[in-house]
Amino acid sequence: MSHGIQTSQILDSHIQLLTRLYQDIGEEPLHGIRQAVEGDLDGIVAEFYDEMLREPGSDAFLSHDLVRQRLRYTLAQWVRELFTPREPDAVPAFVQRQLEVGRVHARINVPMHMVNLGGRFLKRDILTRVHREHDGDLDRLIAVCELIDASIALINESYLGDQMVAERQSQALKMHAVSQNLAIECERLRSDLLDWLRRFMTRLYQQDQPALTPADSVRQSDFALWLHHKADLLFQQEQEIAKLKQQLAAIEHASERAIEVRKQGLTQGFFEQVEALNQGVTRANWLLAELVSHTLEMDGGRDPLTRLFNRRFLHTILQRETQVCIRHGGRFALLLVDLDHFKQLNDRHGHDAGDRVLCQVAEALSSQIRAGDFVFRYGGEEFLVVLSDISPENAQAVADKIRRGVRELVINAGDATIRVTASIGLALHDGHPDYSRAIGNADRALYAAKAAGRDRVVLADDLKADTADA
């Protein structure tokens, strides 16, 4: 039996169950339950939120102000809807809304036990109110339990389905890194690390009192950005990646010690730190080469035309970026890049010329980003760029650089010379655990860039400011 048929049968089973439940309970008991709940709904929501916040780990997805503000309203709406009488033809839409709740919980990576714990808190608080208002009416108490259990079961069904898909995609992404491209990237990263060492050593020997600025730190190198934002997604060997991260920390420590000792002159201690730094970089390069040589890659998860990632792994990558930002306090940015008047270009020059344009634009995008960033073929003529751990100012600069780079492209198509422009919507992750908000913000910014005349970058935050001013 196929997964699609199984899913359809499970969905039908839930619809039938809830239809029977609402019919068996009846309108009058449901109105009584809702009346009891409505009398103290703000208290129920407040108690739920307070108790959930006391649970270890809940701050990752509940502490954000936007979540708090929306949670109070959406939870109250969920409770009201659950105890509202409904006809059989209204049940399928209700079921779909519960499934969407599960998908949202999966997307922001709320642990399953927290979902179930929240259900327990709600059931206890609602039962307490109904018991008090209706003198322990057993039928109403049973109705509360059955409706909450049925709804949580639907949420869990959807949650597990999305989590299974996400896990499969995560594993597939690790298995589908292209060996040739990965080997080239590995060599570039090794070269980058050696180049960092050369620049650092030059400063050490030229300056008597060198100071380490954040820009000089090895953690700002392409190698470090790649290691923290991309390596875990491309490789199965978690232990080797952990060793690389430990080696990076050792290099950072050795560089800091070398600066401190250098202030005392060219002493034996200084030369010992220089040797430790050299050994650290050499070992990191060796570990990186071993990591690639021991990985079996298969080509896949990529757009066959541009060789960029397709949307298959977008969820996996954005979920990880969101978790990294929440954990460490950084921000990532999304650039939604759309080629202007691409349909007319295809109609005028043909699809082969259009494909050539897409390939050259893909190369231009890839050349403008760092090792820890990602580029996706998002749609027909749309690309999505994920800029890891970046400031708003630098994200704006990258977006402007990409726009200019596309504008400067000259594409030969037979006897014709083609030039294109791009509109870009830029959105920064605002700390919210649901990354789909950032995608939506980038999409709205892109729409605004198109409406404003194309060939420009629009920042989503500017749209919010304009709305507030209005």
Automatic annotation (TrEMBL):
<dbReference type="InterPro" id="IPR000160">
    <property type="entry name" value="GGDEF_dom"/>
</dbReference>
<dbReference type="InterPro" id="IPR043128">
    <property type="entry name" value="Rev_trsase/Diguanyl_cyclase"/>
</dbReference>
<dbReference type="GO" id="GO:0020037">
    <property type="term" value="F:heme binding"/>
</dbReference>
<dbReference type="Pfam" id="PF00990">
    <property type="entry name" value="GGDEF"/>
</dbReference>
<feature type="domain" description="GGDEF">
    <location>
        <begin position="330"/>
        <end position="462"/>
    </location>
</feature>
<dbReference type="GO" id="GO:1902201">
    <property type="term" value="P:negative regulation of bacterial-type flagellum-dependent cell motility"/>
</dbReference>
<dbReference type="InterPro" id="IPR050469">
    <property type="entry name" value="Diguanylate_Cyclase"/>
</dbReference>
<dbReference type="GO" id="GO:0019825">
    <property type="term" value="F:oxygen binding"/>
</dbReference>
<protein>
    <recommendedName>
        <fullName>Diguanylate cyclase DosC</fullName>
        <ecNumber>2.7.7.65</ecNumber>
    </recommendedName>
</protein>
<dbReference type="InterPro" id="IPR009050">
    <property type="entry name" value="Globin-like_sf"/>
</dbReference>
<dbReference type="InterPro" id="IPR044398">
    <property type="entry name" value="Globin-sensor_dom"/>
</dbReference>
<feature type="coiled-coil region">
    <location>
        <begin position="234"/>
        <end position="261"/>
    </location>
</feature>
<dbReference type="GO" id="GO:0005886">
    <property type="term" value="C:plasma membrane"/>
</dbReference>
<dbReference type="GO" id="GO:0052621">
    <property type="term" value="F:diguanylate cyclase activity"/>
</dbReference>
<dbReference type="InterPro" id="IPR029787">
    <property type="entry name" value="Nucleotide_cyclase"/>
</dbReference>
<dbReference type="InterPro" id="IPR012292">
    <property type="entry name" value="Globin/Proto"/>
</dbReference>
<dbReference type="Pfam" id="PF11563">
    <property type="entry name" value="Protoglobin"/>
</dbReference>
<keyword id="KW-0175">Coiled coil</keyword>
<dbReference type="GO" id="GO:0043709">
    <property type="term" value="P:cell adhesion involved in single-species biofilm formation"/>
</dbReference>
